[in-house]
């Protein structure tokens, strides 16, 4: 980036910071604001930022942001504490997520036949993860029952990492990589999907052991504890990639182990997500507005229709099926079905598909994902506060309904400060 571009981004951040607390209860969310800034300063706006989606700087920023986000999200959630009380997110992840991938694959194959079945699957899987930060007012609004807020929080924290192995398989098959030799392809995929997480888990286990010991002996400064939450996922990423594993899955598995093994690291990782992680995320949304949104000029009706379906039917039906038998109110099922925003993970998965996989019909994948994320940023951002208040009134503030059952609390990616 040029100094002028950095100055523009910094000015946008400063101006939004001045009204950030007011914005928490309004309809303008940070992703909306910064995506709009990107559109204004991009090549199709004022022409102040001239970047291309294939620029190395964008790719590296996206990679670092993704590995830190996967680590930060996973480190917030101790999976050993997920029990029957967390039946909603467990079902959303174990049943709803695969069903959403299958439904999206079928719809994409019908609407974009040039993609083939595996290209359609890559599109559907890239859009499967949700981003609760796009509807922050929902997961932080006390009028929404705690169990429902935690369900969306846990789902969003884990589904991006869980979807990524499926994306690797579908994208490589769509690109014809398996045709070079099924055995070699299987070994490569196996090394990425299994080797990467093993490297991340081992490094995180060792890091947790060392940090807990250092903290007990009062050897470690709090500032450097926070810095270690930046170093650990990047170490896991780099080490896994050097060994032929997948660095993103290494970062995700490192976060899962940290959540189970070190309360200090877990708390420090949450602090990281509050500031540094948010900064990286907002920069990605600026780049989305500047670099990818202009592509929507080439969008056809199929891309727009698919975006609408992805945010409604292709999300809502799998959610409804996965929640059968839990005796939740219809309003709750609709609420959970609607608030599955698509954001950061889908954008970065798109960049990976563009750069690494020569998939036939890739332009359709690009336009469909960009249209879906753009629609989600504004539709979920604008409806988060009003629908959270409306839903909160409809279910009340207590009682014996399933929505009000007590569940363990996991931190949000962004904590609302009083």
Automatic annotation (TrEMBL):
Domain of life, source organism: Bacteria
Any one annotated GO CC term: plasma membrane
Topology class, membrane: Multi-pass membrane protein
Gene Ontology molecular-function annotations: antiporter activity
Transmembrane segments: 92-112, 118-140, 191-211, 246-263, 275-293, 305-326, 333-353, 365-384
Primary localisation category: membrane
Keywords, sorted A to Z: Antiport, Ion transport, Membrane, Transmembrane, Transmembrane helix, Transport
One Gene Ontology term from the biological process aspect of the record: proton transmembrane transport
Domain annotation Cation/H+ exchanger transmembrane: ranges: 13-388
Keyword Transport: yes
Keyword Lipid biosynthesis appears in the UniProt entry: no
Compartments, as annotated in UniProt: Cell membrane
Name by which UniProt lists this protein: Cation/H+ exchanger transmembrane domain-containing protein
Source organism of this protein record: Limimaricola cinnabarinus
């Amino acid at each position: 980036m040029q100094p002028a571009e950095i100055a523009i981004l910094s000015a946008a951040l400063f101006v939004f910071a001045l009204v950030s607390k007011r914005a928490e209860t309004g309809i303008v969310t940070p992703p909306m604001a910064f995506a709009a800034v990107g559109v204004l300063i991009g090549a199709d706006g004022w022409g102040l930022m001239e970047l291309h989606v294939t620029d190395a700087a964008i790719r590296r920023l996206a990679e670092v942001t993704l590995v830190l986000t996967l680590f930060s999200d996973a480190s917030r959630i101790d999976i050993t504490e997920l029990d029957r009380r967390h039946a909603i997110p467990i079902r959303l992840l174990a049943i709803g997520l695969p069903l959403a991938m299958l439904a999206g694959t079928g719809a994409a194959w019908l609407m974009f036949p040039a993609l083939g079945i595996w290209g359609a699957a890559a599109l559907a899987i890239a859009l499967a993860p949700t981003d609760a930060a796009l509807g922050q007012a929902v997961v932080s609004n006390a009028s929404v029952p705690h169990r429902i807020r935690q369900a969306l929080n846990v789902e969003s924290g884990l589904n991006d990492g869980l979807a990524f192995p499926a994306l690797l398989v579908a994208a490589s098959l769509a690109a014809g990589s398996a045709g070079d030799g099924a055995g070699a392809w299987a070994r490569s995929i196996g090394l990425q999907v299994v080797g990467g997480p093993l490297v991340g888990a081992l490094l995180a286990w060792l890091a947790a052991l060392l940090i807990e010991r250092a903290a007990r002996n009062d050897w470690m400064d709090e500032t450097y504890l926070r810095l270690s939450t930046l170093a650990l996922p990047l170490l896991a990423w780099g080490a896994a990639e050097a060994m032929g594993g997948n660095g993103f899955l290494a970062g995700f598995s490192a976060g899962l182990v940290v959540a189970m093994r070190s309360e200090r690291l877990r708390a420090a990782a949450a602090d990281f997500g509050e500031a540094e992680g948010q900064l990286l995320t907002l920069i990605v949304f600026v780049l989305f507005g500047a670099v990818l949104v202009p592509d929507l000029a080439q969008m056809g009706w199929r891309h727009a229709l698919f975006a609408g379906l992805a945010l409604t039917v292709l999300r809502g039906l799998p959610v409804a099926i996965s929640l059968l038998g839990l005796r939740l109110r219809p309003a709750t099922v609709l609420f959970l079905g609607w608030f599955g925003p698509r954001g950061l993970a889908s954008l970065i998965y798109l960049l990976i598909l563009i750069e690494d996989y020569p998939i036939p019909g890739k332009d359709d994948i690009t336009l469909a994902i960009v249209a879906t994320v753009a629609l989600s940023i504004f539709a979920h951002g604008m409806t988060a506060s009003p629908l959270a208040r409306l839903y909160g009134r409809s279910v009340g503030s207590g009682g014996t309904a399933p929505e009000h059952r007590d569940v363990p609390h996991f931190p949000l990616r962004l904590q609302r400060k009083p």
